[in-house]
Amino acid sequence: MKRFVAIFLLAIMVFSLSACNKSNAPSNENDISKEEPIEVEEDEIIEPTPNTDEMEVTLYFANKEYIETGDESLEKLIPEKRVIQYGDISLEEMIVKELMKGPESEELSTVIPSNVKLLGVEVADGTAFVNFSSEGLYGGSLQEDFTIDQIVNSLVELGSVDRVQFLVDGQKAETLMGHIEITEPFEP
After folding, report:
1. What does CATH list as the number for 53-168?
2. Which residues form the GerMN domain (predicted)?
């Protein structure tokens, strides 16, 4: 009887192992492992990272000396040339992010609040819509004035932007930080 049980178990094991072998016949038309490989032309290059472009732009930053002294004979904003890379986000949005990052020159400053969050920048019919989150969007009238001027002057340098409309949480708002009316688009 022991011999019969041992032979029976051995037969089941052999049968089970043979069932595990891969069959050459397709079992399911939707089986991904059986699909034909994607053909790529020999001269076609597939890059794992998105395309990025590079452009020299003019960014406007606050003159530190003007801020410190209030001397009206000084320029309020001073241009700074910079080469920026963009691709996964628009050039216009990258410009605002670079303004938020700050200048390379020690004589210049950005007055855009460091805790403000940029939600996006869209351009339609020559108007750049700069959308900020209301969270962290506060400051004095001078800071609000410089923030608006920095962004407007920098974006209008591009040929695709004629005016800038500020949005707060995706909506038109009365003011950006409580001092200057932003219901209409700004032009330089």
Report:
1. 3.30.70.2210
2. 92-177
